[in-house]
Automatic annotation (TrEMBL):
It comes from Datura stramonium (Jimsonweed). PANTHER family: DOMAIN PROTEIN, PUTATIVE (DUF241)-RELATED, OS06G0725500 PROTEIN. Residues 1-24 are annotated as: Disordered. Pfam families: BPS1. The lineage of its organism: Eukaryota, Viridiplantae, Streptophyta, Embryophyta, Tracheophyta. InterPro entries: BPS1_pln. This is Uncharacterized protein. Residues 1-22 have a biased composition (Polar residues).
Length: 283
């Protein structure tokens, strides 16, 4: 997906020189996440760290929304059209997060099937299933990317609000959505790793085994590179088989962490949406 790249490092979070004290914590968390490097070829560790940062941002946002001071200020706000904008984005995010979480879960199950096949040295069916799933996943990821882009270019409702806290909360909700788009872009870039061509599939594995050059290599791609030749290995290539077994185990562990991060974000989105629905229902 060469046409797709993360842009969070180019986004600006414009914070006023004087902010309401209640918003300071979330501003700090947003700025910490903003300073992280979002690589065009992220590793599983980078994805996990990005999700952890986004979860912390959402937790702080939830704490801010549920402060009695915040709830009172939002309830007094006469113009609540901005809430519809935020709620619409929250529905889209829930859909994107849920679909991404399902893809990660399915990928993890496919990796487990491959691990079982490697142990038995019989795995043509499992590898074929894995390859078919990878192709389907790339299509699903492409659709998710399109959905994110639509969110990124969604309508922004003008807000005529003089209350400093309300204005700050609205701004931060929008900033959190923008940061969420950047983090999910990184997740999808990771999941859309190129499917290896049927040529020199052992070359990457040999390089990694012999040189230990595993930095900046997408974990999915490095595993893909070996699978079609895996069951044709001779006794002298046991080291390569062991390497792939190790990579599969590591990849499963990474995906477990990514899945947990997506679960946490999903729950945070539900809580924030519930709070906003309560706000909009207040007269």
């Amino acid at each position: 997906m060469a046409s797709f790249s993360t842009k969070s490092n180019n986004r600006s979070i414009s914070l006023p020189s004087r902010s309401h004290p209640a918003t300071q914590k979330i501003e700090e968390e947003l700025n910490k996440l903003k300073t992280w490097e979002f690589s065009a070829s992220p590793t599983a560790e980078a994805v996990h760290n990005g999700l952890l940062g986004l979860v912390e941002v959402h937790k702080c946002m939830s704490d801010l929304l549920n402060l009695p001071l915040t709830l009172q200020a939002l309830s007094r706000c006469q113009d609540k059209k901005w809430v519809d904008e935020i709620l619409d984005k929250s529905v889209r995010f829930l859909d994107i997060c849920g679909t991404t979480r399902e893809l990660v879960s399915q990928f993890k199950e496919n990796v487990r099937d491959i691990q079982s096949s490697v142990r038995r040295r019989k795995g043509d069916v499992s590898i074929n299933n894995y390859t078919s799933f990878r192709k389907k996943m790339k299509k699903d990821v492409k659709n998710l990317v399109t959905a994110l882009k639509k969110m990124d270019h969604g309508e922004v409702v003008a807000v005529m609000e003089v209350d400093q806290l309300v204005s700050g909360v609205i701004r931060l909700l929008r900033e959190v959505a923008t940061m969420g788009i950047s983090v999910f872009q990184m997740v999808l870039v990771f999941l859309s790793a190129p499917i290896s061509k049927p040529i020199s599939k052992w070359s990457l594995v040999s390089r990694l085994v012999n040189k230990g050059d595993q930095d900046n290599v997408n974990e999915i791609e490095s595993v893909d590179a070996a699978l079609s030749s895996l069951f044709k290995c001779g006794p002298s290539e046991v080291e390569k088989i062991q390497f792939v077994q190790s990579k599969l185990g590591t990849l499963e562990a990474h995906f477990e962490c990514i899945e947990n991060g997506l679960d946490n974000i999903f729950r945070c989105l539900i809580r924030s949406r519930s709070t906003l629905l309560n706000v909009v229902s207040c007269q």
